[in-house]
Amino acid sequence: MQTAIEVNDLVKVYKNGVRAVDGVSFHVGRGEIFGLLGPNGAGKSTTIKILIGLLDPTAGDLRINGVDIRRHPAEIKRATGYAAQETAIDDRLTGWENITLQGRFYHLSGREIRVRATEVLEMFNLYDRRKHLTATYSGGMLKRLDIACALIHRPQILFLDEPTLGLDVQTRQVIWDYVEQLRTEHEMTIFVTTHYMEEADVLCDRVAIIDNGEIAALDTPDALKAGIGGDVIYVRFSGIDGNESALQSRIGAVSHVRQVKPTADGTYRVIVEQAGEETIPQLFMLCEQLGVTIDAVSLKKPSLDDVYLHFTGHAMRDDTENHEAHMKARFMRGRARRGK
Question: What global pTM score does this model have?
Fold first, then answer.
């Protein structure tokens, strides 16, 4: 597979001393949907903004289609499209006017804009609403229009920064379908940042887990899940009486147990190398010896949540609600500045 994106030893240190990206390396093949998975503040948006030329890297070798992004920024901009977390849609304009404006930024002719705008608006089922003010669009429609605007110049690579943040489950699925359509029908390379585990699992061919500016793991979702063990057992205890550390140590010594981690709600997550059905009876025997009661137990296959915990040592820091509130406040301030 030919390489579309090459990142080697990328470092970004801001003027205030924050080391947002710390020696990150990865590559993305042409026609691949590649996901950068991590919580807010992990370095995802910084990485994507460096790759499209919005930020300068502190260090690193970065190439798009073999072209150095710092030496040939204009060529990189022609080859890439970008949809940010916050949509760049002007709600004083219609859908058609927004996408026409974007086409003019790329110096497309009037005819090119008409042909391409019709093409992408039809693709995203927005053509019938093209003459309506985008102030009347739903959140899902605004996100679809934003992605459509990023495609007006027919880029080879599309960068999507948290493309479904704040959208309901049904609308997320619609966006996922459109992204897959872009890859399948147009052989487009798509780079996605997300902190939604399900999104990374369903949508991406490969996933890089990033935490505190470093890549913790990189592989296909299935390979990442298979790599941490056979099954995951969730157990809730009572009667521990402050001996959590000792209990965790004893569970870790049970045959075939690879990892034991307490979760935020007090449940223990036990990763085993073989079928969990064989380990659960051993846990009951151990608890009987220790005088501890098992209140609840469940068994499932590993998920990307388990992968993230395994490689980073902690669960995903999910501050989605705070982020969405921040984005809504920014939107309302923008409307107020325009006199609405």
Answer: 0.83
